[in-house]
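Structure in, sequence out. Go:
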């Protein structure tokens, strides 16, 4: 049955949620997130295969009502009583824990649909469940990950920046999906400066921080110890920090990474720029594994994602924790609201 039009109180632009890897925990956390958000919001709709969600619900004991919608405009009326699903059929029925490249095109198409809807103003933000990169590569996916693909779809001239955020810490890796050797080789002043500028702008626009404070981590132990343990701090990072400071951004660094993340240190900044992937992700996942959110900065639309992977080892068991997805949905809603208010 076609859902009724939403009332004035229900009117809002819903969030588009992509399925992620169909053999992972994306479907399970989607169902659990609807249960958490049905009363207090935010409103979202899943771009997914309704049949696979129903089978998954029965398998895990998460039998919740689903309603197929024709477009995002119907989501608000449906959401309080059922999960709205914009139907996209998979090629094969997924087997939990066993990704199949045959379903890769449907996963990619769901991301493309979400971006098209938010660019058209029919969705308020994009939230993505975790993908299985190796499986998508086999299906012809030509990007290192979600972040790069979303920047491509957005047609953005600004290089995408990944932030991991929670109430306890915000971190930004300057280099992302590279080996440590390649990450170090790719560091340069311009990359650090542009990442800092994008981060500061996002903190101001999306987090309502009037004057963002950035901390810049060193690369080497003790931030190089004056060159005794490496020259990257003096040759690359310190000059970049000075350029960021001259641009009018409050910035500290380069700072020793081993003393940058304890409780007292975190009171001195709003976000940390880290030089490589694990330097950023280890502290935030240690501090708040279930509550951290992955955000793509520098896009013309809001995109967030839970800060965990596909968890193939527990897929289909009912054990997945939806906390990070709920946090991602709520953070996306808050960011989208701030952007809408700023736009008038």
């Amino acid at each position: 049955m076609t859902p009724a039009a939403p009332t004035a109180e229900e009117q809002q632009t819903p969030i588009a949620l992509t399925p992620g890897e169909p053999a992972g925990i994306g479907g399970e956390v989607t169902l659990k997130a609807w249960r958490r958000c049905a009363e207090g919001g935010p409103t979202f709709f899943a771009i997914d295969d309704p049949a696979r969600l129903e089978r998954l619900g029965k398998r895990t004991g998460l039998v919740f009502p689903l309603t197929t919608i024709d477009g995002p405009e119907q989501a608000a009326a449906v959401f309080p009583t059922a999960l709205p699903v914009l139907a996209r059929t998979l090629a094969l029925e997924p087997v939990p824990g066993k990704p199949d490249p045959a379903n890769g095109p449907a996963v990619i198409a769901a991301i493309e649909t979400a971006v098209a809807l938010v660019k058209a103003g029919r969705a308020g933000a994009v939230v993505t469940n975790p993908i299985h990169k190796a499986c998508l590569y086999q299906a012809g996916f030509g990007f290192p990950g979600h972040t790069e693909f979303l920047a491509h779809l957005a047609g953005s001239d600004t290089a995408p920046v990944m932030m991991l955020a929670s109430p306890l810490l915000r971190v930004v890796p300057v280099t992302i999906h590279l080996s440590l050797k390649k990450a170090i080789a790719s560091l340069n002043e311009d990359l650090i400066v542009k990442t800092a500028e994008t981060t500061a702008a996002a903190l101001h626009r999306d987090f309502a921080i009037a004057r963002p404070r950035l901390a810049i981590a060193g690369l080497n132990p003790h931030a190089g110890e004056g060159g005794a343990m490496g020259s990257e701090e003096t040759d690359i990072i310190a000059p970049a920090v000075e350029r960021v400071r001259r641009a009018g951004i409050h910035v500290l660094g380069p700072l020793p990474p081993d003393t940058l993340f304890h409780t007292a240190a975190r009171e001195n900044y709003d976000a940390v720029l880290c030089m490589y992937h694990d330097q950023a992700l280890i502290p935030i996942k240690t501090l708040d594994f279930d509550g951290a959110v992955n955000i793509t900065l520098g896009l013309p639309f809001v995109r967030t994602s839970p800060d965990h992977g596909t968890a193939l080892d527990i897929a289909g068991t009912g054990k997945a924790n939806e906390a990070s997805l709920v946090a991602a949905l709520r953070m996306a809603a808050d960011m989208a609201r701030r952007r809408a208010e700023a736009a008038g």
